[in-house]
Amino acid sequence: MNWNHDKITERAAAAHNPLPVNRDRPAAQYGGRSFNPVNWDCRVLAPENWPDQPILSSPQVIIQEFSAGRFLNGLALVVSWGAMWRQNNRIYGNRSLRVIHDALTFCALSLRETKSIDESWERLTGNAQNQLMWSPVITSKTLHFLSRSVGIEQDPPVAIDNAIILQRVWPIWIEMIPVHHRPQVWRGNTLDSYLRYMTAINIWANQRGWTTTEIETTIFSVYKNRG
After folding, report:
1. Which of 4, 80, 141, 164 is the right S-S partner for 57, CB 3.0 to 4.6 Å?
2. Domain extents in the chain
3. Are 135 and 87 within 8 A, CB to CB?
4. CA distance 48 to 139
5. What secondary structure does DSSP assign to the chain, as a single string?
6. Helices 97-114 and 136-149, interaxial angle, to 10°?
């Protein structure tokens, strides 16, 4: 990917790593949950195109659906995978399914052609016509799987969530850094905020020779278990 790193975050992440020293293997990405397509038929344009049942909202199935251009199917699976049902009104709202489908189609093409999330982030989070006004959480999860569906596996964008990344990882990590060398926050809807987060993720992944997916799933696992 073409990542535009934040220089202050880059220096801080290179000097201060949030993972325990004894974690030398990446954690597995969450494998998904049972998915009942009947509950999601109203969220897709072609209900007859669900994968054969039983369906698991696994990363593999999500990527499969996005790769096949079944973007609304893939999105429903992302919502299930990320346990974001309570956010359905914000994700779908009163937007037409065609507008959402077209936005995801645009993102897939942009990711393939530019190897950058810049255009896609604006399309998914912006409030102009045909933009979706999504949160960074659903945006980052969707872009993660869309990127992998177009062949970006080494350094795709990864999920940023509130409960673990913003409320646990960020406060602990920022306290490691001398006050005058601290980067700006990761929280916020802006692309710059997310790029600061991804700068740290990329630095930590490169230090270990892992993918960005592997470093994010490991960080999530470590800090989730800290309670």
Report:
1. 80
2. 7-29+158-226, 34-149
3. yes
4. 26
5. ------HHHHHHHHH---S-TT--SPPPPP---EE-GGGGGGGSS-GGGPPSSSEE--HHHHHHHHHTT-HHHHHHHHHHHTT-GGGHHHHTTT--HHHHHHHHHHHHHHHHHHS-SHHHHHHHH--STT-----HHHHHHHHHHHHHHTT--SS------IIIIIIIIHHHHHHHS-GGGPPPPS-SSSHHHHHHHHHHHHHHHHHHT--HHHHHHHHHHHHHHH-
6. 60
Return all residues near 41 (Cβ < 8 A) that are at least 6 apart: 47
Residues 182-206 as b/e (b if ≥16 CB within 10 A, e otherwise) read ebeebbeeebebbbbbbbbbbbbbe
CA distance readout (Å), 203 to 14, 42, 62, 168: 6, 41, 27, 19
CB 52 within 8 A of CB 73: no
pLDDT tens digits along 1-10: 999 999 999 9
